[in-house]
Amino acid sequence: MAETMKLEIFRYRPEKESEPTFQTFKVPFHEDWVVLDAINHIKDEIDGTLSYRWSCRMGVCGSCGMMINNVPKLSCAAFLKDYYPDTIRIEPLTGFPVERDLIIEMDDFMTKLTEIQPYIIRNEGEEKQLDEGEYLQTPAELAHFKQYSMCINCVLCYAACPVYALDSSFIGPAAIALGQRYNMDTRDQGRDARQELIASHEGIWDCTFVGECSAVCPKHVDPAAAIQRAKVSSTIDWFKDTLIPWGKKK
Amino acid sequence: MSTYHRHVPNTWWLQRRPYILFMIRELTSVFVAGYCIFLLVFVFKLTEGADAYANFMAALKYPSSVALHLITLVFVLYHTITWFNLTPKILVLYKGEDRIPQGLVAGVFYAGWVVVSIIVALLVLGV
Q: Which value does ipTM take for this structure?
């Protein structure tokens, strides 16, 4: 008889229940199946009403993040064999409101991501025209921030962050890491524009350096390091402004 | 559409090992601060004369005092080691395109710790 595994899945169907429940499904066990394969099996063969997000199946799109045994993971990168023969408990990412089953509402993250202005900002009148060529950058300059540019917005880091779960006003790991990514980009001149938000209480100073955002990041972005580096540079700003106010740039 | 908001229990930090370790790290700050206050009291007793200092030193030899110091030592060691291990996240250094290994950054702090400890030990032992 073929081997099977049990998946205990969080269900929330707002049209028929006010509180979520857990539903257990039995799925075939295959060595090469990931949790997403098992959930797709449930959707296709057992219960078509199960709702969740997924797309690329290869850790690029960042849409299939779930709590798998209470750890935020991309379900396309979590192999069943790592849990076999135990039951796997699957829930929507922690810290976010749940729309339906495993689907979270990401509006708060999208708003914060927009507010952090994650794109190259140039000073008025200093933007190059197309015929003037590229903004040149050395490989060493690129190396300083490249890691932070690998973010796929999967929000696993938010789900791992207890600060965000307890206080959703926190800007959060991915948005701050992306802000830091542009602040460190030699082509960018928008640090001052981002600083008000990044250096605010809801920004870097809300972070208590739990470090789990970096531990769960599937792209090794290390947002915890980005936040701590932003703390260092913001502290240096404060000392410069306080001790040598006449040197403060406009 | 009505979304469901999950309540975060006060015991959230017991749900995963990394959170427990984090909370212990936060708790160790109390012991570090406590020992700083102890050192200030120690210096203050020195200023109060030989008798006050001798009484204070005698009190430190009580088993309860020794036990408290041993517990504090464990927490301060935990505090030191966990923070030293986190320094590479704060001090991200590059040599050209290559990042200086995280182990090396933390290693410098450990080496400094060993050197300072040896100096303190030599001073205490009066060598």
A: 0.90
